[in-house]
Amino acid sequence: MSQLPGFETEFDVVVIGGGHAGTEAAVAAARLGARVGLITSAFETIGQMSCNPAIGGVAKGTVVREVDALGGVMGRATDLAMIQFRMLNRSKGPAVWAPRAQCDRGLYRRAVRSLLEQHARLQAVQGTVARLLLTPDEQRVLGVETIEGRRFAAKSVVITTGTFLHGRIHIGTETRISGGRAGEMATTHLAEQLEQAGLTVARFKTGTPPRIDGRSVDYSALEIQESEIEQFDYSWSHFWSAKRCNNSGTRHPAQMPCWITYLEAEGKKIIKDNIAKSAMYGGAISSRGPRYCPSVEDKIVKFPDAERHQIFLEPEGHDTAELYVNGLSTSLPAAVQLEILRSVRGLADVKMNRVGYAIEYDYYPPTQLDPSLQVKAIPGLYFAGQINGTTGYEEAAGQGLVAGLNAALSIQRKQPIVLGRETSYIGVLVDDLVTRGVDEPYRLFTSRSEFRLTVRQDNALRRLGPIGMRLGIYSELEDATIKARLEHEDAAMRLAETTSIRPDEAAPILSGADSAPLSHAVRIVEVARRQEIPLDRLLRAVGLGADLDSEALVTADLEIKYAGYFERERAQAERMRRMGDFSLDPDLEYSDMRSLSFEARQKLSNLRPHSLAQASRIPGVSPSDLQNLVIEIERRRRLAATR
Ligand SMILES: Cc1cc2nc3c(=O)[nH]c(=O)nc-3n(C[C@H](O)[C@H](O)[C@H](O)COP(=O)(O)OP(=O)(O)OC[C@H]3O[C@@H](n4cnc5c(N)ncnc54)[C@H](O)[C@@H]3O)c2cc1C
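^ thats the input. predicted complex w/ flavin-adenine dinucleotide below
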């Protein structure tokens, strides 16, 4: 019971929302030793995937591994719920491989919940937060109050309410339902309070396709897509835990196939004929949606000449025949949705389980946050996930992790953790959000990173493990495991550099790959530089490396093959790190700096960057502005020193 009158419990950190951002925020704060309350509207929807039951993909798969490297739940839960796996970009080589897993939706939710329960300091509370409790001057948070009348004290609060703030669901132009997701209430009280607090608010939209009954599908008319057989784990935790949490003796549940079909001329005509009835095209919604997850209406309007559009029928899980109709996100009326579905090959007699819809919601332009994801105007309050104008589970998870760590660090009066762009996609994501803001739902792409050769899915533990160790977020066993895993990589490199291979030992590998034979014994590292020759086979040919982790060998192989490229990128990363070390006082008076352009002064005054590196990424701040900024700051420092 709380010592504070009127409060049921005193937490260090309260996280509002048990989605992808909220669960990571709660675990991250708990790992730092904070007493955490995760307050969410319904326990049954903890870890709920609102849309596609898939985790990962290009750039996103790397984020999952980064979250995992810093002790998060997303990778571990995916490993326990994965029912189909594909390594995207496989034809382009391991440096750009991108893991993507389809999940059993129910298993995923249950896995997340049980992973949360492994943290003794984390208490989940079912409840809907109605308002933040603030100090009388509204300068700091004191806790939260739920609509059920429960009050919880907190030193920091992280809001991760996704699409729920003033959420409004649209199905056609006639049907509008207040809701945060189908069947779930919108959050209004908290939304009103945040707006009244003077924060800038804006609206985005997103959409989801209908779901169908798999028992009503004619599979004989469809193409099958099987899972890749290869065993893949998002989480490094398998390295020490041979016994999986599902106790079945296998790492993943049994794999399930997807099915491929197409929207063709008939379906396109139905959409064209009914376009005015679409919520998005009939004028019911004006806010912006994610460009890279277009609705089917968008596809028909923007690509009128495309003959057909691919549709994936993806299983929702082992315990149901329901299928997710990937590629058919729509806000047309329900009757039209059914007509479209029945025009698709294999779906002539289909039954529609759930109707597709669009949803509009409040988001808070993220330039109102500092790089720790704290709201600049209200210290102690953090935002993470879709509330910041992003889209996607992985983007939400990455932000949740950062906000959770910082919410806990702030109450311990420690420096916030800001992941650099050169360390991670999470660093790119957070920096883009707080520095540039968003003008459409933000999604990660590899092209957003300057460091896409050295920031890869396979080396997340190498990049972030040492940061996690410094923060002290791992158990003793995890700590030892990370060290052992990284030692395997180092051992593979050492063996390659110090062991020679004879021409007869290398011959079968080289001839099989049409690679020139050796004329004399050479160090393995020299042969491994050849693109087509894998390091692990060379080591095996000389009787070494059998005891090394296969992923450690992949990383070592990449480090050898692309050493030149990696070195250049790492030198650039070092330059950026140095610029990051040039910190800028948040109270700097930019308006006096006449040598800077008017636009630069204005933007710097509004955004108040924390470092020269961050200032360099603000649109409108030119290289000459930066140079003048350094001169101005140094002049002021000299002046201050002489006083
Ligand atoms: C209809 C729909 C379609 C989508 N389509 C796509 C897509 O095509 N592609 C894509 O990448 N992403 C899509 N998304 C987005 C994706 O689901 C989100 O980006 C991701 O889930 C955001 O995570 P989050 O943690 O921010 O929020 P969520 O996962 O939405 O979690 C929010 C949590 O907050 C809880 N909550 C809300 N208000 C309160 C309150 N007052 N008190 C307590 N708890 C509260 C909710 O119950 C929920 O658990 C879609 C989302 C929706 C709803």
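The two ends are 54 Å apart (CA to CA).
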